[in-house]
Amino acid sequence: MKNLYITSSGGSLFNYNIKSKEFVKEFQTLNSNEYLMGISFNKKDLYFSSNYNIYQYQVDKNLINILNTTKLANMMIQHIKCIGSYLFVPCLNDNSILIINTGDLSKIAYYIKLLASARKTYGDCISNITFIENKFLIQFCSVKGKDNSVGSEADFPRTSGIITMDTNLELLTRTTNGIEVVLTEYVDGKIYSICNYIEPKNGNGALLVGGAPKVVWSNEYVIYDMAIDEDNIFLVGRVLRQNDHLFGGILLHLDREFNLIDNRFFSGVGYFLGCSSPEDKTNQYEISNDRINIENWKEKETKSIITVCKGEI
Amino acid sequence: MKVLYLFFGIRSNLKRIHFDFIETFMNLPEVDVKVYGPNEQILNGDLISPIGFDIKLQLNDIIKELDIDILLLPELGLCKKYFSTCGINDVKSIPKVIFESDFYAVIDVDWYKRMGINLMLMLHPYAPNILPIESVWLPPSVSGEQFLVEGVNNDRINRMVFVGGGRYSTNKYYKVRQDAIRILENNDLIDWYGEVGYEEYPKILKVYKSALSCSFPPLNFPPIKTFEIMASGTILLTTSFKYKNALFGDEKCFFTYNKDCSDIINIAKYIQNNTEEARQVAEVALQKVKDNHLFEHRVKELFLILTSLLNHNNIPKRWGI
């Protein structure tokens, strides 16, 4: 991996050179109410999203195209991902996933709405979608848990949950999977999860692989995204340490054995919410369209899956 | 005076505006406040509502049962969401008073008349002539217990903080706030926390020397954050707002920036570099809140308003409108 692209709460796209440590702002959203979070490569093109725009960055041409989704749906976009030739766009406002053909960004190819597990506001914050063998896995935060509690971002910590669906988007399973699990990815046959509340006694977070903690960070850090290549793991998020006033974006660089190589802090950039690179394995889904053939879904353009989680925390 | 207050059990930041204020009102010896609504029966182990919420129960029956003198309603949106089947309209025997805040967002403005509401208690200074029924401005106030500090000291982080929501909202009245945060953040002049929850909010305000707010231009209303920052001994930076002299007099007690944010960087740096002058401004602000803008002050104003309404007297307008 040579370059890591990083999105921020301040609406910036940064390009971080891993060798030279050079950190360059490549793009800044025009509107002050945009954050950038979702980021995903599809071959040469980089797709990244604000809360309501999707941007296609043709890196080799240095050209950015914008798809304004406010005309298409009421949304607050989370971690986007290219799977096959489709761009999957999880949206917070109505717990929906928009599916857009990267060959035609002008319209939504498919829309799936996931009913909230509770009627309270802020329930079921959809986070990301990934593809494992023959099923989709969708990560949620703030689901209805055993104690019936549902909270907003402010009501930390929140119960997390996962649903799986087959390639026709039929519900397979639903389960709670811990507290403050904000991201789940499938890399080299293993499930990598970011959990920002693994130890209730101190609120520490961890990178989990197959459910086991591999790296633990203190509660001064909140990690939002990761990128993994053959040799490296990058974690991005925010750090908030009042004692010596460390406040801003954080980039943790690990090797694949989970040893910390570098820990870099950036001030004046907001928080880091997403990261990716062309070699990022959390974004490599060269899947033929016949495995997730959207044509099969046409007769059910809107469907509802109640995401009530029945599993144990 | 026996008051029935309708509420709905929320325990987040909204609680501070709504229920914490009513809790202070309950402490007045002249009033007996009962609460009714979903999830509203026990507060801190005390039974505050003798009647459990039942969607089929009618307010008229509850009012009769509890011998209520006056009905206090939360803002329109909450009334429609939680109490639309309770027969607000059918209550004719006692005055009905509603707390209202974001009137600009109300579409069904005839609702107040249809429901027979007698008085709007406005959190923000809307001109009375644009409101559908009689109104009185009851400005925001703060909980001394949660926010007040003894004095303004220098043992704080010498930076500006923003705590609260709205940064990514599409509400047009948040635009200046959003621009201000973006500009200050890109110049490494602000720590933006976003929403942090009920408990953390006052704690964070008290850790920093200065805090950003905004008066929702072009509405130019002082939000509750104005008062909370001042009560915390934290230097307030805000866009200017209506009735500032009525609320705080003409002594300087906060700093202002232009609504186009053209001067915000210079002012933020000035506050950071002129700590003693800024500290003195914050001291004045703290005293202003202690003198006039605590819940204890405002509940007395509320009591006088409700008493006047019950006695068919003119509504006292302490703040001019």
Class of the largest domain in chain B, according to the CATH hierarchy?
Alpha Beta
CATH topology of chain A, by name, is Neuraminidase
Tell me the total number of β-strands of chain A: 24
Quaternary state reads: heterodimer
Number of DSSP-assigned strands of chain B: 13
What overall geometry of chain B do the principal axes of the alpha carbons give? elongated
Sheet with most strands: strand arrangement of chain B: 2-1-5-6-7-8
Order of helices and strands of chain A: EEEEEEEEEEEEEEEEEEEEEEEE
Tell me what the CATH architecture of chain A is: 6 Propeller
Number of helices of chain B: 13
The CATH topology of the largest domain in chain B? Rossmann fold
CATH architecture of the largest domain in chain B: 3-Layer(aba) Sandwich
Radius of gyration computed on alpha carbons of chain B: 20 Å
Number of domains of chain B: 2
Q: By CATH's scheme, which homologous superfamily of chain A applies?
A: TolB, C-terminal domain
Q: What is the overall number of helices of chain A?
A: 0
Overall mean pLDDT of chain A stands at 82
Main-sheet strand order of chain A equals: 3-2-1-24
Task: Write out key terms for the chains shown.
heterodimer, A: 313 residues, mainly beta, Neuraminidase, 4-stranded antiparallel sheet, 52% strand, B: 321 residues, alpha/beta, Rossmann fold
Structure, explained:
The complex is a heterodimer of chains A (313) and B (321). With 313 residues, chain A is mostly beta strands. Chain A contains no helices and 24 strands. In chain A, the strands form 6 sheets. Chain A has a 4-stranded antiparallel beta sheet, with no helix packed on it. In chain A, strand 22 and strand 23 form a beta hairpin. With 321 residues, chain B is α/β, with parallel strands linked by helices. Chain B has 2 domains: 157 residues, Rossmann fold (3-Layer(aba) Sandwich), CATH 3.40.50.2000; 149 residues, Glycogen Phosphorylase B (Rossmann fold). In chain B, the strands form 3 sheets. In chain B, strands 2-1-5-6-7-8 form a 6-stranded parallel beta sheet. In chain B, helix 9 links the parallel strand 11 and strand 12. The model of chain B has no long low-confidence stretch (mean pLDDT 93).
